[in-house]
Design brief:
The complex is a heterodimer of chains A (about 400) and B (about 350).
Chain A (H helix, E strand, L loop, with lengths): L4 E10 L2 E2 L1 H10 L18 E2 L14 H16 L10 E6 L9 H10 L5 H8 L2 H8 L6 E4 L5 H14 L5 E8 L3 H9 L20 E2 L1 E9 H6 L6 E10 L12 H14 L6 E5 L6 H15 L5 E2 L2 H4 L6 H15 L1 E2 L21 E2 L4 E7 L4 E9 L4
Chain B lengths: L1 E9 L2 E2 L1 H10 L5 E4 L7 E4 L11 H5 L5 H17 L9 E7 L4 H14 L6 H7 L3 H9 L6 E5 L4 H14 L5 E8 L3 H10 L23 E8 L8 E7 L12 E4 L21 E2 L2 H4 L6 H14 L1 E2 L18 E2 L4 E7 L5 E8 L6
Parallel strand pairs in B: 5-6, 5-7, 10-11, 10-14
Antiparallel strand pairs in B: 1-2, 1-8, 1-9, 3-4, 7-8, 9-15, 12-13, 14-15
Helix pairs in contact in B: 3-6, 4-5
Classes of the chains: A alpha/beta (about 400), B alpha/beta (about 350).
C-alpha cells in the first residue's frame, strides 16, 4: 500500500533570499549574491554566499546555524498553518555539519595557550544540537535526530523523516538542513583545493571549484491523515528516497557513479515512477571537476539526454549540511510555480559531461522532480518530490 | 528485529569475547592519562589501546584514518564476523553510527594547523578526517558496504534513536541487514570540559547507583550490532521495541533493568522512578567508562546475558538507595531485559530485549 506523505510547509533562507518569495525573485533575475567573507577575519579571498541579515528575533550569539534553522523552521510552520503543535506527534530531523562540532577557534586558542578557557563556547555547543534544540523549542515529543552526513545531510534528514512517517512513528516531521558559513570549513575546503577564486560554474567546461554558502531549508512533512484532520490542503508530496554508499573514497566520488545511480533507482522505485516521469532534476552540481562529471554522467544514464537539469548552487553557494534541505525546498517550490531558473554559472558545455543544464528560465511540465546530494564520505542521496492530486 | 552479531572495541579489548570477559571479571581501574593542563596532571580514562589489537590487517588498510574511525571499523568488522552469516557480501547492508562528539580530536588537530600555519596552510587530510561521517566512510569502504550509510549525533539517546530508525529501515526493506553502532573518543580538550562541567572520580570508580552526587570517568570505544529480521544460528536476541523520550511499556515486567547511569548527568536520581524493586537492576558503565553513547555497551551486555542465559554481577555495587541489584554472576533464566537511558530533562529512553524470536512485534 502506498503511504501518502504530504509536504505541507516550506521554509528557506540563503543568500538567494529570506523566504521563498524573495528566493524565487532572485532566481527569476539570476541574481548571484556572492561577495567576500564578512563573518570572520581571513587572509583568503574566495567569494562566498552569505545571508546578509539575521532578523534580531532570531539572533543567537555564536549560534548562527541555529539562527538560520529557526528562521526556516518558522517559515515552514507558518506555511503549514501550524501554530499549535499540541496533540500531534511531531518529529524533528535536521542535517548540519558545523553545528555538530566544537570548532570554536577562540575557545581552542585560549585552551591551547592557557590550559583553560571560558565555557561559553562549550555551553553554546552543548545547547545547540540542532534537532534537540528545535524539538525542545517547538515542544515536539516525537523522534529527534541530527544528521551529520556531510553534504548530503539535509537530503538524508528528509529521507529519515519519510521513514519515520511511513512507520507511523509520528504525524509530522520538521525536516531539512542548516549550516552557517564558518571559518573552519572555509579553511578546510581551501586546503582541499576545491574553492573557486571566482563564482562557481556548475557543469561548465571551465569550472574551477565551489563557493561556500550558508542557509537553511526546512519542510513540514505530514501524514495525509494528519493534514486532513486539521484541514490543511496541499498538492505537494514526498514520494521516494534512496541512499547508497560509494564504499570508495573519503572525499572523491566513485568514478563509475554506482552509488548515485543506485540511490536514484531506489528513490524512483519507492515513488513508483519511471525516469521519464521526472520533469527535472535539481542536481548537487557543486562546480568541482569530479562531482559534476560523475553526476552529469549518471543523470544522463538514468534519465536520458533530454533531461531538464540545473544546479541552484550558483545562487546559494554550497551550503553543506543545508544544501539538501534548501534544494528540496527549491525543488518543491519549482513544481508549485511551474518553472526552474537558469542554472547560474553555466556557459560552456563540457564535452566530457553528456548533459547540459538549463540555460534559461524554463517552464516545466510533469508531476515529479528529483533532488540529489553527493557527500564527502561517499554518501549519495536522492529524493523524489511530486505535485498533483493523489500520489 | 534481531541482534545477529556484536562487535566492539573498548578499554578491555576487542570483540564480544572481551566484553564477556570484562562482565565476568568485573571492575578494573582505568589508566591514568597525562593531562598537562589539568590541576592534577593526570586523569583516569577508560582508554582504548589500538596498539594492543592483535589482528593488524584492517588497521593497515585504514592507516590514514583517525582513532575514532579505526575504532568504528574494527567494531563494525567484528560485528559482521560475529554473526557468522556466510554470504553477507551479496546482501544489502547499511550502517547507522551514533556519536555524541564525533571526530573532535581530529577537529582540534585541524584547528592546530590553522593556528600554527594560517588559514591557507591547514592539512587537507586532517580536515577530511574531521568530518563526522568519516568513520562510516572508512567502514563502508574497508568492509565494502554499499547500502545506505548514516551518521547521527545527539547528546543523549542518539544510539536509541538510531535503533528506532534501524527498525523502520528494515521494516521498509531499505536494506537486508544494518550495522548500527555507537562511538566516541576521549581527548584532552573534552577531558578538560568534563572536569569543568562534572565531577571526576579520581580513583576511576564510577558508582552508577549513587545517582547524587555523581562522578564520571571518561571512556571511549565503539560498539556495533548487526541487525536483521531473520533468526540465525548465532543470533543473540530480539529488539522488541526502542522508545525515545517516553516509555509506554514502563509498567511491563521484565527480568532485569539495565540503566545507563555513568555520572554524565549532574543528577541521575531520575532513574529511581523507573526501577521496580521486584526487578533486579544492573549498570555496567564502570567497565567501559562514561560515554553519552554508553547505552550501546549496556545493551550489548543485555544481549549477551539473554543469549548465554547468564547474569553478570554489577561491577561496582555501592548501593545507598537499597536497590535490588544483580549481585552475583551465574546461570539464570532471562526472558526479557529493559535498557533505560535518562537525559538532563528527566526524559527516558527504553530498549526492550527479549530472548529468541518469540516476542518480536
Amino acid at each position: 500500500m502506498k503511504t501518502n506523505i504530504l509536504i505541507t510547509g516550506l521554509g528557506a533562507v540563503s543568500a538567494a533570499g529570506n523566504g521563498l518569495d524573495d528566493t524565487l525573485d532572485s532566481f527569476g533575475l539570476t541574481e548571484r549574491n556572492a561577495g567576500p567573507v564578512t563573518l570572520f577575519p581571513t587572509a583568503m579571498d574566495y567569494p562566498v554566499f552569505e545571508v546578509k541579515r539575521i532578523p534580531e528575533a532570531y539572533y543567537h550569539e555564536g549560534m548562527r546555524t541555529l539562527s538560520l534553522a529557526l528562521i526556516a523552521v518558522d517559515q515552514a510552520l507558518e506555511d503549514a498553518a501550524l501554530r499549535n503543535l499540541s496533540g500531534y506527534r511531531v518529529g524533528v530531523c535536521l542535517g548540519t555539519t558545523v553545528a555538530s562540532q566544537l570548532n570554536d577557534l577562540q575557545f581552542y586558542a585560549a585552551y591551547r595557550q592557557q590550559g583553560s578557557a571560558p565555557m561559553t563556547a562549550v555551553d553554546r555547543f552543548l545547547k545547540g544540537n540542532l534537532a534537540e534544540y528545535i524539538a525542545r523549542r517547538i515542544k515536539a515529543r516525537g523522534p529527534a535526530l541530527t544528521i551529520v552526513n556531510a553534504c548530503s545531510s539535509g537530503t538524508d534528514a528528509i529521507g529519515v523523516a519519510l521513514s519515520w512517517l511511513k512507520s507511523d512513528l509520528c504525524d509530522m516531521v520538521i525536516a531539512g538542513g542548516a549550516d552557517e558559513l564558518n571559518h573552519i570549513p572555509y579553511c578546510g575546503f581551501s586546503s582541499l583545493g576545491i574553492l573557486n577564486p571566482g563564482l562557481c560554474a556548475p557543469f561548465d567546461r571551465d569550472r574551477k571549484g565551489l563557493n561556500l554558502g550558508e542557509g537553511a531549508g526546512v519542510m513540514v512533512l505530514e501524514q495525509e491523515t494528519s493534514a486532513r484532520k486539521r484541514g490543511k490542503a496541499t498538492d505537494l508530496f514526498l514520494s521516494g528516497y534512496g541512499s547508497m554508499s560509494d564504499a570508495y573514497h573519503l572525499t572523491a566520488p566513485r568514478p563509475d557513479g554506482a552509488g548515485l545511480r543506485s540511490s536514484l533507482t531506489t528513490a524512483l522505485a519507492e515513488a513508483g515512477i519511471e525516469p521519464g516521469e521526472v520533469a527535472f532534476v535539481n542536481a548537487h552540481g557543486t562546480g568541482t571537476q569530479d562531482n559534476d562529471l560523475v553526476e552529469g554522467t549518471v543523470l544522463k544514464d538514468v534519465f536520458g539526454a533530454e533531461l531538464k537539469m540545473l544546479s541552484t548552487k550558483g545562487y546559494t553557494g554550497h551550503t553543506l549540511g543545508a544544501a539538501g534541505g534548501l534544494e528540496a525546498v527549491f525543488t518543491a517550490a519549482a513544481l508549485r510555480v511551474g518553472w526552474i531558473p537558469v542554472s547560474a554559472g553555466f556557459v560552456n558545455r563540457d564535452e566530457a559531461i553528456p548533459l547540459v543544464p538549463v540555460r534559461e528560465k524554463s517552464a516545466i511540465s510533469g508531476a515529479y522532480a528529483v533532488s540529489t546530494s553527493l557527500a564527502f564520505g561517499g554518501n549519495n542521496a536522492a529524493i523524489v518530490i511530486g505535485r498533483g492530486g493523489q500520489p | 528485529m534481531k541482534i545477529l552479531g556484536i562487535g566492539t572495541i573498548f578499554s578491555r579489548g576487542v570483540g564480544v569475547g572481551a566484553l564477556e570477559d570484562a562482565l565476568a571479571v568485573g571492575w578494573r581501574a582505568p589508566v591514568q592519562v597525562e593531562a598537562p593542563r589539568s590541576e592534577q596532571g593526570a586523569r583516569p580514562v577508560y582508554l582504548v589501546d589500538l596498539d594492543a589489537v592483535p589482528d593488524r590487517t584492517l588497521l593497515k588498510r585504514i592507516r590514514r584514518a583517525d582513532k575514532l574511525s579505526k575504532m568504528c571499523v574494527l567494531a563494525a568488522s567484528d560485528a559482521l564476523a560475529d554473526s557468522r552469516i556466510a554470504d553477507l557480501g551479496n546482501k544489502r547492508v547499511g550502517i547507522i553510527l551514533a556519536t555524541a562528539f564525533g571526530a573532535h580530536v581530529t577537529t582540534f588537530d585541524f584547528l592546530d594547523g590553522i593556528l600554527d600555519f594560517g588559514d591557507a596552510q591547514a592539512s587537507p587530510t586532517t580536515f577530511s578526517n574531521s568530518v563526522h561521517n568519516a568513520a562510516v566512510s572508512y567502514a563502508s569502504s574497508a568492509l565494502n558496504i554499499q547500502g545506505p550509510t548514516l551518521t547521527v549525533t545527539q547528546f543523549r539517546f542518539s544510539f536509541q534513536s538510531a535503533l528506532q530508525l534501524a527498525r523502520t529501515w528494515l521494516d521498509q526493506g531499505r536494506c537486508d541487514y544494518l550495522l548500527v553502532g555507537a562511538a566516541d573518543q576521549y581527548g584532552d580538550v573534552l577531558g578538560y570540559v568534563a572536569e569543568q562541567k562534572l565531577t571526576t572520580a579520581g580513583n576511576g570508580r564510577i558508582k552508577p547507583f549513587v545517582f547524587n552526587p555523581v562522578c564520571q570517568v571518561p571512556g571511549e570505544g565503539s560498539l556495533f550490532f548487526l541487525l536483521g529480521r531473520e533468526q540465525t544460528e548465532n543470533a543473540y536476541c530480539t529488539v522488541r521495541a526502542a522508545y525515545v523520550n517516553d516509555d509506554p511499556d514502563q509498567a511491563e515486567m521484565v527480568d532485569m533493568n539495565i540503566i545507563d547511569a555513568d555520572g554524565m548527568l549532574p543528577d541521575e536520581s531520575g532513574y529511581l522512578s523507573s526501577l521496580d524493586p521486584r526487578i533486579p537492576t544492573a549498570a555496567y558503565s564502570p567497565l567501559f567508562g562514561s560515554m553519552l553513547v554508553g547505552g550501546a555497551f549496556n545493551l550489548a551486555a543485555g544481549a549477551l546475558m539473554l543469549k548465554k542465559q547468564t547474569r553478570f554481577a554489577v561491577p561496582v555495587a555501592d548501593n545507598p538507595h537499597g536497590l535490588n541489584l544483580v549481585s552475583e554472576t551465574g546461570p539464570a533464566v532471562i526472558g526479557a531485559i529493559r535498557s533505560i537511558g535518562l537525559n538532563c530533562f528527566g526524559e527516558k529512553s527504553a530498549v526492550y530485549l527479549t530472548e529468541g524470536i518469540r516476542h518480536d512485534r
